[in-house]
Amino acid sequence: MSRRKIIFTGGLLLIQLCLIWPVYPLFSDIYPLILGIPLSFAWVIFALLAAFSLLLWYYLTEPEESEPSLNSGGS
Amino acid sequence: MESWVIILIVCGIYLALTLAMGIIPGLKVSDSVTGFVAGDRSMNLLILYFVMGASIFSSFAFLGGPGWAYSRGAAAFYIIAYGITGMIPLYFFGPKVRRLGEKYGFVTQAEILEDRFNSRALSVILAVVSIIVFIPYLTLQMKGAGFVLTTISEGAIPEWLGAGIAYLVVLAYVYFSGVMGVGWTNTFQGLFMMAIAWFIGLYLPIKLFGGVGEMFNQIAASDFSAMLTAPGLAADGQPWDWWGFSSAVVVSAIGFSVWPHFFMRAFAANSDKTMKLTVVLYPTFQLFMIPILIIGFTAILAFPGVEPADTILPYVLTQLDLPIIIIGLVCAGTLAASMSSGDAILHSAASIGVRDGLSKFLPERFNTDLKQRYLIRVFVVVISLTAYYFAIISDVPIVNLLLGAYGGVAQIFPLVFCMFYWNRANRAGALSGLIGGIAVTLLFLFYPEWRPFPIHEGIYGLIVNIILLVGVSLFTPPESKQRLNRYKNA
User: Fold this and answer.
1) Alpha-carbon distance B427 to B122, whole Å?
2) Which of B327, B352, B426, B436 is the 20 to 30 Å CA partner of B240?
3) Angstrom distance (rounded) from CA B131 to CA B349
């Protein structure tokens, strides 16, 4: 697996963990309010934006000649 | 003129526009099954983005989303949470599925799984499961549409008529244009409901509390403050536990990308790039759940005690001194949410019912492209009428069937994954995994007290599914090399 895929898979797992136990409980409080939004809500929005950035990065760094499959070996 | 008449005129204009947008694209697609089911594999990024987005966000999102936030507080974040990673597998499966579809003529999920696992029975099981899930799903959308029109007309339009009018429009464009009708209307409906959601989600807290931050501050300082702490409340009003929340997020995320009506849109994409970009951009669509949930939070302090919680959005609209035209637009937006999911479900249920179910039992001479297309159209009408019957006439609570839907649909995921990434998976493994997984999910759905831990029944289903899929596959011969190579090199 290429480094790019390892980073992507690791990032994806981390984001998934952020949305469930045991990571989400660390950010499940109301305070601090972030831009007026409770931390518990802002945290989920943050995870959404993180997933968007991760996949966008993965898409933009995709080697042109290689197919985007998990078993194609990357660049 | 009475205010509800103006609101109905706005909804009427919306319905007329939708009908026109649904019928016109049908003139351009070929008169074939591929044209009807997969839009001649010609969907560009704009259309596919809205088809995928608007199909998922249904009247559940528009009515249920605020309802959850209103009655269960932070539990509603689940609705955003599972979609965050749920769509990503399609980034990898989608382009492969699309290329194989183009090469071998597949247009449904069951067709490609049937081919990979060399099993007609698998196709029929998937067709039956899909129809069992889709009819209550469609029924729910119809109820949503009927409910909105009845509420805003102050009862002048009964539910049977409201649901009937909205879904006659859906029936017309799905029947005539197939998936391209779904595509263009969903683009229009998607844009419309996004605009409405953002407007009303920001307008309400500003009007009632002076701003979103002030609204949350006041909830935090009130007796309802516990609602803002994740994971919020369970359906019975007691605090939801992390086991329940986390397992629901995981099961729903796993099932998300393999919902048959969602997955099969990969066959309609015009290129790999379109498919991948649709997945990449999907979170931008999902952001509109933020204002949707804010609507529900706004009502916690402003309008306590409204039952059932799903009626909170129309309730708020009737209580505020809003310009009539705005109320009309919000109602049309709710109709858009209902119809943009209803049309995709109707189209998929009919396509799957014929391609993966009925056609397996018909003699060859009835299986020509033309006759299949005709049969799919007949199914569109039959499924509409069946769902309408359950929505309006029957008292049977079939919508309860949807409770187990996510756990059941998630059982398809291991098969889709192994289709591309595990050569050793074979017919016996796939069949036993799927049947075992669904059986265990249903068992724990109906007898929740038998669960060893209080986690989502779909997790137990997945554990049994994977054990059977791997175990049985290893103890039985693999599929032929030729068949496997098609998928390995896809």
Assistant:
1) 8
2) B436
3) 6
Restricting to B residues 219-238, those with a Cβ less than 8 Å away from any Cβ of A are: 220, 225, 228-231
Taking an 8 Å cut-off on Cβ atoms, the answer to whether A38 and B220 are in contact is yes
Q: What is the ipTM of this complex?
A: 0.91
| pTM reported for the whole predicted model | 0.92
B280 touches chain A (CB under 8 A): yes
Return mean pLDDT, chain A: 88
Asked if B96 has any chain A CB less than 8 Å from its own CB, the reply is yes
What's the token pair of residue B347?
């189209």
Tokens, residue B240:
């939801």
Over residues B50-66, mean pLDDT: 82
Does B217 lie at the interface with A, CB-CB under 8 angstroms? yes
CB B182 within 8 A of CB B262: no
Q: Using the CB atoms, write b or e for B303-313: b if 16+ within 10 Å.
A: eeebeebbbbb
Overall average pLDDT of the B328-357 stretch: 91
Q: From the candidates A28, A34, A60, A61, which should be mutated to test the interface with B, based on the most B CB atoms within 10 A? A: A28
- Tell me the sheet residues that pair with A34: A37
The sign of the torsion formed by the CA atoms of A7, A10, A14, A15 equals positive
Query: How many contacts, defined by CB atoms under 8 Å, are there between A and B?
Result: 116
CB B180 within 8 A of CB B343: no
Q: Do A67 and B95 touch (CB under 8 A)?
A: yes
Looking at residue A65, its pLDDT comes to 60
- Calpha distance A27→A14 (Å, rounded): 14
* A64 close contact with B: CB closer than 8 A: no
Locate tokens 């569109």: which residue?
A: B380
Question: Hey, are the CB atoms on B213 and A25 less than 8 Å from each other?
Answer: no
pLDDT class of B403 with cuts at 50, 70, 90 = low
Q: Does B345 touch chain A (CB under 8 A)?
A: no
Query: What are the CB-based long-range contacts (under 8 Å, 24+) for A67-74?
Result: A67/B95, A68/B91, A68/B92, A68/B95, A68/B272, A68/B276, A69/B92, A69/B96, A69/B420, A69/B490, A70/A5, A70/B92, A70/B420, A70/B421, A71/B420, A71/B421, A71/B488, A73/A1, A73/A2, A74/A1, A74/A2, A74/A4, A74/A5
Q: Which of B213, B245, B284 sits opposite A33 (nearest CB)?
A: B213
Contact of B410 with B251, CB cutoff 8 Å: yes
Per residue in B444-479, pLDDT tens? 999 999 999 989 999 999 999 999 999 999 999 999
For the segment B234-242, the average pLDDT, to the nearest whole number, is 89
Residue B344's pLDDT is what?
Answer: 92
